[in-house]
Amino acid sequence: MKNTIPLIIAVLLGAAAVFAVSRMIKRDAGLDDVNYIYVVSAAKDITPKDDGIKESWITKRRVEAASAPIKAIRWSEANSVISQRALRTIARGDYILSSDISGVEIRLSGMVADGEWAVPVTFSDPALVRFMQPGDEIAILGAYSLKESKKKIDYSEKADVVEQQALSVIFPCVRILDIGKGDGVRRDEDAVGAAGTIVVALDPQQASALVAAQREMELYPALRRPNDVSVRRRRDVGMVNEKTFRELKQGLDVVVLPDSGSVDK
User: Fold this and answer.
1) Would you identify the CATH topology of the domain 32-106?
2) 161-196: b or e for each residue (b if 16 or more CB lie within 10 Å)?
3) 225 DSSP 8-state letter
4) How does pLDDT run across 67-114, given as a tens digit for each residue?
5) Is 255 exposed, middle or buried (0-12, 13-18, 19+ CB in 10 A)?
6) CA-closest candidate to residue 139, choices 171, 106, 111, 112
7) Structure confidence at residue 189 (pLDDT)
8) Average pLDDT, integer, range 167-196
């Protein structure tokens, strides 16, 4: 028994060491989690008076994809910053954005995180789109029809098809990549267009579902608070259908309108 305990401890320590090494390898390779990306950050203070940014002036920064600035430059595109002049003073440790550097253009593909696809989505009511900005998080709701067959007592007769309207959350939290021309810059109302089309980031399965949903549903956006961790599941919201409105009148008294539109004095 005494010889067994040291053996067990050694095995546990060995397993912990292997796990730690594997995490380090994955982190260095940039493969640890699809929710994280590597962006360019300033390793020293950079000013517009400098002749050009040197390679030693920048460093790699690991950040959650959802919280990264929409104009952050991916580490894979760090070479585009070298020798370019800064348009503003960038403090040490700050993100280096595409708008901070002369001669740097950010592509829409450069704003898509690993494991994500960029998908355009058109809303039936574009009113809220004019208040959105790239980087905002929204929920996408869908209004659709539910068809149900009700069999008759006489099975020889054809069943009746009853159609009901319903609304539910399709995607509770989606990140907006772009509204405009594909460079992460918010455009004016005319550029948004009457259709209310924006570009969002989703994983491949969700992207496929969104494309299909636009063929079957009327979609509506709901603007979320930044980095709000509540209501991350569709089931947390539930569904609104005809039963919802039928139950609105339960326990309510009927209002009787007066003959006159105003109170007699």
Assistant:
1) Type Iii Antifreeze Protein Isoform Hplc 12 (3.90.1210)
2) eeeeebbbbbbbbbbbbbbbeebbbbeeeeebeeeb
3) P
4) 777 778 888 888 888 888 898 899 999 998 888 887 766 667 767 777
5) exposed
6) 171
7) 46
8) 67
